[in-house]
Write a structure and sequence with these properties.
Blueprint (H helix, E strand, L loop, with lengths): L8 E2 L5 E14 L5 E13 L4 E8 L10 H7 E6 L2 E6 L5 E7 L2 E6 L2 E2 L4 H7 L5 H7 L5 H7 L17 H7 L6
Parallel strand pairs: 1-4
Antiparallel strand pairs: 2-3, 3-4, 5-6, 6-7, 7-8, 8-9
């Protein structure tokens, strides 16, 4: 599950009940702003304990593991996170367990089993982000405030991190005077 994903992204072609090729590959930007390509779209069905969850997803074969978009799910469903469990409630049904928290990530529950990412996916997802990535994620917070908020173990730091400003911050400091 990913709270930052704008679409459901699946890397397993066999997970699709129907799959159509996109006329032109669509660029998908990852959290570190690196681009990869979606080459198709189709319907995914996830069996839950009491019912099936169906939705449209992009096929992104370069992904290491699939991502469910919390934003997309919340458009037609009520999503809640409580005590390490993600619950989903659709209009005409009871609340059901969708995912469980394991190692800092929510893994989707299929039927009564939790599906965990492969070891390489877990390593990728739990790698330590850079100081500048935290700066971007937290709405371009100042370096001083960011250092006070985030423990040193939670980011990678290089020698010039403190002094560098991102382009967004530089542009935001520009002002225009009107007479």
């Amino acid at each position: 599950m990913d709270s930052g994903a704008s679409h459901h992204l699946f890397c397993d072609r066999l997970a699709f009940s129907s799959l159509k090729r996109l006329a032109k590959p669509t660029t998908v930007f990852l959290g570190d702003n690196s681009p990869i390509f979606a080459t198709g779209y189709g319907e995914i069905t996830i069996p839950l304990a009491e019912s099936n969850l169906k939705f449209q997803a992009l096929y992104v074969p370069e992904l290491t593991y699939s991502l469910l978009s919390v934003r997309c799910l919340s458009v037609e469903n009520k999503i809640s996170f409580q005590n390490g469990v993600c619950l989903i409630q659709r209009e005409d049904s009871e609340q059901e367990k969708l995912a469980s928290l394991h190692g800092g990530l929510y893994h989707v529950t299929v039927g009564a089993k939790s599906v965990r990412a492969s070891p390489s996916a877990t390593a990728l997802a739990t790698s330590v982000p850079s100081f500048s990535l935290w700066h971007q994620r937290l709405a371009h917070l100042s370096n001083k405030s960011l250092s006070a908020l985030i423990p040193k173990e939670a980011y990678q730091r290089d020698e010039n991190t403190q002094e560098s400003l991102c382009q967004v911050c530089i542009k935001a400091k520009h002002t225009r005077k009107f007479d």
